[in-house]
Amino acid sequence: MIAPSQYRLGAAELEVLLAMARTGTLAGAGERLGVDASTVFRAIQRMERGLGQPLFERSRAGYRATDLAQALAEQAERVEAALEAARAATQAQPEQVTGTVRISTTDTLLHGLIAPALQQLQPRHPALAFELHASNELVSLTRRDTDIAVRATRRPPQHLVGRQLGMIRSALYAGASSPTLLSDVEAGRAAWITLDDAIPDHPSVRWRRKHFPRAQPAFRVNTALTVMELVGRGMGIGVLPIFLAGHRSELRPLTGSLADCETQLWLLTHPESRHLRRIAAVYGHLAETVQLP
Questions:
Q1: 3-state SS of the chain: helix, strand, coil percent to 5?
Q2: Residue of 148, 101, 93 whose CA lies nearest to 122
Q3: Is the model's pLDDT at 22 over the cut of 70?
Q4: How many whole angstroms separate alpha carbon 2 and alpha carbon 108?
Q5: How do 161-168 and 148-152 pair as beta strands?
């Protein structure tokens, strides 16, 4: 390819390129842009002809961005952030914070920490709206699938802006009405409720397999909230985060904090997004409000 010397990329072209880089498919990019896949395809072709270089390599997994496309996508993110900040400045009064903030976290963190914090924030910024994604799957900040992520991890991605909010500590619990004792657990006479299949690398799963390798779960569930619900009903024992279970009257701890289950709680966002007013307001509030010892 030979690039015409007068070809210049515009904001519209960068928007298409960024959508493709984030989604990796024509259909996904089209959905983000509100156009059909063929429109995206033609736009990418025009850019490649104008630049004289390929921007994406097609594979079975979709479209992979070349080094040039990745470099342009980084610049496009800066343009996107600047445009969004400019639009927000024209739509809001100086004291107002408006727009939608997308937050990704797990079910336990959402119900135990994030929702109470947002309940405090909402009256201060009534024009803010929230999209809350509660899942054990990691939602990508790099592709801007979310604005803020709150995650339990010891190794947050280095390309993100983050703040550690404390340590998540867990203990082994039984139902308050259950006669189960720690000696019953040690003797193999307790029914386990676990996350084995849903999150096989979860700290609670690793701890049980290390200390009780012969224990066979009676219930395998896909969320920690379900573990808590079944334990509270007296249906078995389970490892639960202390911040969530510690104040529940239907639960009774069988152990103190389990050192092998400790992990860090991180508040994360993308460096190009952190200065946007709506994201900065929510990020700052969560950083001040959500604190674990």
A1: 40, 20, 40
A2: 101
A3: yes
A4: 54
A5: unpaired
pTM exceeds cut of 0.85:
no
How far is the C-alpha of 47 from the C-alpha of 251, rounded, in Å?
60
Scored b (16 or more CB within 10 A) or e, 3-21 reads eeeeeeeeeebbbbbbbbb
Q: Are the C-beta atoms of residues 125 and 97 closer than 8 Å to each other?
A: yes
Could you give the CA distance from residue 226 to residue 245 in angstroms, rounded to a whole number? 12
pLDDT at position 282 is: 93
Report the amino acid identity of residue 183: S
Return the residue matching tokens 């039984």: 174
What would the pLDDT profile of 161-179 be if each residue is shown by its tens digit?
A: 888 999 999 999 999 999 9
- What digits encode the pLDDT tens for the residues 263-283? 999 999 888 777 788 898 999
Cα pseudo-dihedral 38, 141, 151, 226, rounded to 10: -20
Measured torsion, CA atoms of residues 16, 20, 21, 24, in degrees rounded to the nearest 10: 180
